[in-house]
Fold this sequence. Notes:
Mannose-Binding Protein A, Chain A, disulfide bond, C-type lectin domain-containing protein, signal, C-type_lectin_CS
Amino acid sequence: MRKMSQLTFFLFAALVSLGACQQCSQGWTYFQGRCYGYGNTATSWASAQVMCQSQGATLAEVSTTEENNFVSAIARTRKGTCVWLGATDIFREGDWKWTNRRDFSNFTNWSGGEPNNLNNVENCLNMFQRLNYRWNDENCNSNCNFICVGPANNHLSAAEVPISK
Ligand SMILES: [Ca+2]
Ligand SMILES: [Ca+2]
């Protein structure tokens, strides 16, 4: 009996800590149905992608002004010198693709003169502090911070959680 009330308390506490429908893991920020996380380590584009995947996420993909404002605000707040996003033209020069969404044509936010494919080695997309976090193509082996995007948690309302049995 005592065990059950402890369990009930635990579940209650868990619900309270979920707060008003907490949808993202700690350290991740909710926006329009998904969760965004900032990678504190500066690393290569490929390694950043792997780190995102290890969290069930991918490098952030941006297809609207609102989304771009949100993601660049994270980069700006965290003061990343450069911040990877999930697009590359490594397979065909000039043919930019998001890792998952593929379609790149709807929205872009290149800084003036970018992408410039400097020295013929710039094939990965980042937001660049020096360009006020507008988009820049960069050598994929450069070390940059990164932003991942992953699915939000399912909503759990009190009615749906079995408190005790
Ligand atoms: Ca390129
Ligand atoms: Ca560039």
